[in-house]
Amino acid sequence: MANGESIYWNPILETLPQEKLHALQLKKFRRIVEWAFNNSPFYNRLYKEAGLEPEDIRNFEDVQKVPKINKDMMREVQQHEPFPYGDMLTVPVEEVTTFRQTSGTTGTPVYQACTWQDWEWWAETWCYIFYAQGFRDTDRIFIPFGYNVFVAFWAGHYGAEKLGCEVVPGGVLDTQARILKMQELKCTAFLATPTYILRMADVAKNKLGVDPAKDMNIQKIMGAGEPGASIPTTKKRMEDAWGAKVYDHIGITEVGSWSYECTAQPGGQHVNEAFFLVEIEDIETGEIITEPGKEGKMIITSFDRLAKPAIRFDTKDVIAWADQPCDCGRTFRLIEGGIIGRADDITKVKGVLLAPTAIEEVVRSVAELGNEFEVVVSKKRDVDDILLKIEIVPGKEGEQESIVSRLRDQLRLRTNLGYKIEVHRYGSLPRYELKAKRFKDLRKKGV
Question: What is the pTM of this model?
Answer without folding.
Answer: 0.87
